[in-house]
Design brief:
Elements lengths: L1 H4 L3 H4 L11 H28 L8 H10 L9 H11 L2
Helix pairs in contact: 3-5
Length: 91
């Protein structure tokens, strides 16, 4: 939240955005990669639990995994898309 809320020069001068003068983009990429590790671990744990016959928790993750499993070969909800949804759901 600190990184996103901090003033950024490229917000005021968009032509400077590709230079990433303050390192905001690099910092956010590191933070999101850490979040992706957590999200992947939770998804993997939940899928292993399903395979082992554990009861469902009927939460947001279960609903998304159900939709992803019933897409009939369409890759609308692949792992990358699920990560993005989790990111927005945690805000």
């Amino acid at each position: 939240m600190e990184t996103v809320g901090a003033p950024n020069v490229s917000d005021f001068f968009p032509v400077l955005a590709p230079a990433d003068l303050q390192g905001t983009r690099r910092r956010l990429e590191r933070l999101f990669s850490r979040l992706h590790v957590v999200f992947d671990a939770e998804m993997d744990e939940r899928l292993r639990g399903r395979d082992a016959g554990q009861p469902r928790k009927n939460d947001f993750l279960d609903v998304l995994l159900d939709v992803a499993a019933h897409e009939d070969g369409k890759d609308l909800l692949d792992r990358q898309t699920l990560r993005s949804l989790f990111r927005f759901a945690t805000k």
